[in-house]
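To close the section, here is one more complete example, presented without commentary so you can practise reading it yourself. The ligand is fe (iii) ion.
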Amino acid sequence: MALTRQAFVGTFIHSKTKAELEYAHETVLLIDENGIIAKKGPAKDLSALITSLGWDESSVNVTRSPPGGFFFPGFIDTHIHASQYPNAGIFGKSTLLAWLKKYTFPLESSLKDLARAQRVYTACVKRTLAHGTTTAAYYATIDVDATNLLAKLCFDLGQRALVGRVCMDRPDLCPDFYRDESAEEGLQNTKACIEYIQQLKGNGDDALVRPILTPRFAPSCTSDSMRGLGALAREKDLHVQTHISENKGEVELVKELFPGYEDYTDVYDQHDLLTPRTILAHGIHLSEREARAIAARQSKVAHCPCSNSSLSSGTARIRWLWRHGVDVGLGTDVSGGYSPSVLEAARQAALVSRHVCMSTEDDEDKLSVEEVLYLATRGGAQCVGLEGKVGAFEEGMAWDAQLVQFRNVPEGEEEEIGDGGNVDVFGWEDWEEKMAKWVYSGDDRNTARVWVRGRLVHSRG
Ligand code: GUN
Ligand code: FE
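Output:
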């Protein structure tokens, strides 16, 4: 359905490079009826820019950023389990393998009840939109109908998404109550989800919701199932997501289960699962060889710092991955991660990088505010195959954006402090300082509005 043409006026901030944010003040972006940025220019030329596109000024809806507020690209969550949303924050002192057994498999299995799935998935999609997540790479469960329901909800609520039915068929490592009966059954069920997702109305080359092949991780999959998924990925040029090298016990287990392979990365590689469209979550304990192999295949890494600290999995070395040429995005990894907020993931990425630095004693290992915001936007876009389409404000890209707003502390005592969360802005901060305040103490109260492909999908209050 065609949208009204729109003009956004004010301050626009996005990543120019990994290390640098670009600030465009007094600027206008014109958005066409398909939600694409058609023109960018000085705000004073608004009328002339509208005319240059052959548009009628009266047909354009104008939105201005408030003083001190700004437009920022929508966040991209490259790794989130929508099915685990009710467990966010619940993990005790457990580590990965025990956590899966105790908390995760029972919850995921319970979502075969579609009413329950509807409740959980609706809450998850709405909550992530409210946090500014305009694109998410979701794991659902093994259930076909519930997975399709998640895809339909993303489509209806307007969130860009990759949605994957979880594949897990190893009888010795998956519980009887939650497992594909066979590799063949898993593959057939996966194909059913792909077919459903690809027919969602309005889908085309730039489909809002796309399928993603989702072998849970090597320890829960048979070779047959991974080989089948690898072949399908190649045949249909599909996205792939899985977990890798998250926990030392898991790495040891993969060695035992897959003797004859060089390492964890080689297991996926030999099953044709390492492609430029593959998102590997975690990658904490990778060797030099593995980082080189992942870079050579152009596969991506989803860095999930909240999860890695919560499950005491370890500290991922993002600078090290970047130096090897690996593209990295951020994942909330709900519910290994306790928060559905990509801003929280960005903050934790900055903090985890400081822990890396405390052990390497190399200051270079610290990530800056600019770098974690790059991970949350442009880095994420590379992971989900949308580089050049979302993650920044350039002509030809989609208007996937959030309006960020702070509490401006007034000069006169009798005035009220305005809305906008717990980030107090006094007016004397420069823009770099404002961004630092947002990253380190902002939350969803600062996210006033959210758009995906030009459509308003969240409005606060
Ligand atoms: N490895 C296999 N499954 C999972 C999962 O659900 N979450 C995390 N964090 N790691 C996994
Ligand atoms: Fe995960």
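Once you have examined the tokens, check your reading against these statements. The CA atoms of residues 68 and 416 lie 16 Å apart. The domain at 5-72+393-459 is CATH 2.30.40.10 (Urease, subunit C; domain 1).
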